[in-house]
Known about the structure:
By secondary structure, the chain is α+β, with helices and mostly antiparallel strands. It has one domain: Outer membrane efflux proteins (OEP) (Up-down Bundle). Helix content is 61%, strand content 20%. The chain is built from ten helices and ten strands. The protein has helices at 3-11, 27-37, 39-60, 110-176, 182-217, 241-251, 253-273, 334-340, 359-425, 431-466, and strands spanning 24-25, 65-75, 78-80, 87-89, 92-106, 224-225, 279-291, 295-313, 316-331, 343-351. The strands form four sheets. A four-stranded antiparallel β-sheet has the order 2-5-7-10, covered by helices on one side. Helix 4 runs antiparallel to helix 10 (431-466), helix 6 (241-251) packs across helix 9 (359-425) and helix 9 packs antiparallel against helix 10. The radius of gyration is 45 Å and the shape is elongated. It starts with a helix and ends in a 6-residue tail after the last helix. Mean pLDDT is 86; it is low at 1-21.
Amino acid sequence: MQKSVFFILFITSFILKAQNSSLVYSLDDCINIALKNNLDLKSASLRVETSDVNFRQSKNALLPSLNGNYNIGQSDGRSIDPFTNSYINENLTFSNAGLRLDAIVFNGFQLINRWRQDKLNLMASEMEKEDQKYNLILNVTLAYLQVMNAKDLYALAEHRITATTDQVNRLKIMYEEEEGNPSDYRDFQGLRANDEANLIGTKNDFEAAKLRLKQQLNIQEDFDISGIDVPIEFSRPNETFQEVYAEALVNMAIVKAGELRLEASERGVAVAKSNYAPEISLFANLNTNYSSAARVFDATGTSVVDTGDFVSISGQDYPVFSEQTSFTESTIGYQDQFENNINTTAGIAVNIPLFNGFFAKNRVALEKIKMEEASVQLDRIKLDLRTIIEQTYNDMAAAYKRYLALKEQNDAYAESLRINEIRFNNGVDNSVSFIISKNNLENALINLNNVKYEFVLRMKLLDYFKGGTQDY
């Protein structure tokens, strides 16, 4: 077994045998599927829609309000005739219609500040959705890399058992021909059993990693991955964690969302303070009505009628007559009454708060508490961000140092195995030294593969905090 074989094994992603799935997803495929299916992202989108409706509602509140009313009904018994405004005692059909216009001229800039507050809340919701989106992309990327790592380890285990089986087959022939040390054959039989158990474990780890990725994608079907290019050599970034943190404060959506929430809470205080100010508004009304009791009387002529009275002139009584006009009664139509009974009003209204149970004062106090909470939340976001960036940076630096050390270890064990394999195959040494060298190199390859992906994961995290993409 040559050193170059192990080196190629390390730098290459292996294709697994006989996969049941015909689906092969790239990293971009997985990200697109997750963005479409993720339930948390859908919830974030709904929160944005809610904030958008609130914003449009507060913006529309700046417009005047125009409302109409209409009613029609019947009354029986003693009531007031809406046409004559006098008491009547009959079955009455009535109807009213009206139109009212209200426009707030000034209320301590409450409407404007609430509109600006809801606009800031909308922008914050959009930033939170963006943060949710990038968190999802990051989690899918990390899960994808974990699948790649597990797949590589599974391939290493397959190669390991293949190499062991080759030795078992060679030693079996020697054992049957009673050549060499028979214990060498038994040692490699035991080693192959151990490799088979390790293969089962690595396959289970691979399937578990795929399951975690499927959960991120919110899918059920099985699939394989196409993998991404991972470089042979790594270099440590020149940036300090303070520089990464400074970029994160500028670029991270969650920080922008916290700042917008704080600014929105400041607007909330201004909205509460408007309760101290008087409210000035304009109003206008247009009304009309109808009554079935309304009548119109048309003159039809005149006649002389004996009144029954008399006057005495020189002792003689004379009857008194009067001229009376005759009228014909008729009802007034529904449309005619609505047209004839129109009345309008217009004016200005001023509402001055004098005492309202300290409502305004308490409201301002509550909004100030919310503002302090938003400020504390922003500080917490920045503190948590700094902590995780510093920890990720330290883990990256440690992984890089381990990578350099394990790379040297891999080279040393590869050379040791090459020497012991030659000695073992030529019968100069027994199987113990060869098995030890083989196990050492294979374990070194596993450790090197793990630290390789650990370094890539930490670099992906740091790149996420910086708000950009980077090739490693």
